Design the sequence.
């Protein structure tokens, strides 16, 4: 399960933005939205006749496999870095 | 018995795959499960953990660089998404592929097959050299 997401953005005007997002507190804060999203997934699974348990399990596996992901892009004087720990 | 193992045995019973292929797929399934269950120490030494995509390019005279590191575990989990594609969508995609002259049956593409493919990515290196940059995809 991801613990921390780090986002760093370097803008062309040399301004830098650094954001650290602790995942668990963020999920707790947005829990009503998370519940709605899960309900939406369940409805979509029922409409398209996809196994609900299998879909949720796959989603959980994808989320749990995210730690270690790193995306780093630099172009001209702009740079974006996303690290999931 | 879990669902994936049952699918493999069903394919074997139907004669779609040989016993050797079934054995390899089951081994790949167990390999997929063991690192999470036994922790990183149980992983064989030197086995790749990440897929790296490194690209350097020049566009409009400006230099750019892309560096992506994705855990192979994420790819293994991602291939399971193939099982969630609704059959109707697969049929439509098959029809469009046939129309385009690609007679490929996507319904025969199982997550186990893709999982086995990911298992063998370890030693794959893709390098692309262009006049305005280069791309390298490898595992580490």
Sequence:
């Amino acid at each position: 399960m991801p613990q921390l997401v780090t986002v760093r953005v370097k803008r062309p005007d040399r301004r830098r933005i650094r954001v650290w997002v602790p995942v668990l507190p963020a999920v707790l804060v947005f829990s009503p939205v998370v519940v709605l999203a899960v309900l939406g997934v369940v409805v979509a699974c029922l409409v398209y006749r996809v196994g609900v348990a299998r879909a949720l399990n796959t989603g959980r596996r994808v989320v749990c496999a995210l730690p270690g992901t790193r995306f780093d892009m630099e172009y001209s004087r702009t740079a974006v870095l996303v690290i999931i720990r | 018995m879990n669902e994936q193992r049952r699918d493999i045995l069903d394919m074997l019973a139907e004669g779609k795959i040989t016993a050797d292929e079934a054995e390899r797929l089951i081994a790949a399934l167990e390999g997929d499960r063991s690192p999470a269950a036994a922790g990183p120490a149980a992983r064989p030494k030197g086995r790749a953990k990440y897929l790296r995509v490194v690209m350097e390019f020049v566009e409009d005279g400006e230099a750019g660089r892309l560096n992506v590191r994705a855990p192979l575990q994420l790819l293994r989990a991602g291939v399971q998404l193939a099982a969630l594609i609704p059959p109707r969508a697969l049929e439509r995609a098959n029809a469009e592929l046939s129309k385009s002259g690609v007679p490929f049956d996507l319904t025969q593409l199982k997550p186990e097959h893709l999982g086995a493919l990911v298992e063998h990515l370890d030693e794959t290196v893709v390098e692309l050299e262009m006049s305005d940059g280069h791309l390298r995809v490898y595992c580490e």
Summary: Confidence is low (pLDDT under 50) at residues 34-43 of chain B. The interface with chain A takes residues 3, 49-50, 59, 62-71, 73-74, 76-78, 80-81, 83-84, 86-89 of chain B (CB under 8 Å). Residues 3-139 of chain B form one domain. The helical segments of chain B are 3-13, 19-38, 72-79, 87-99, 111-119.
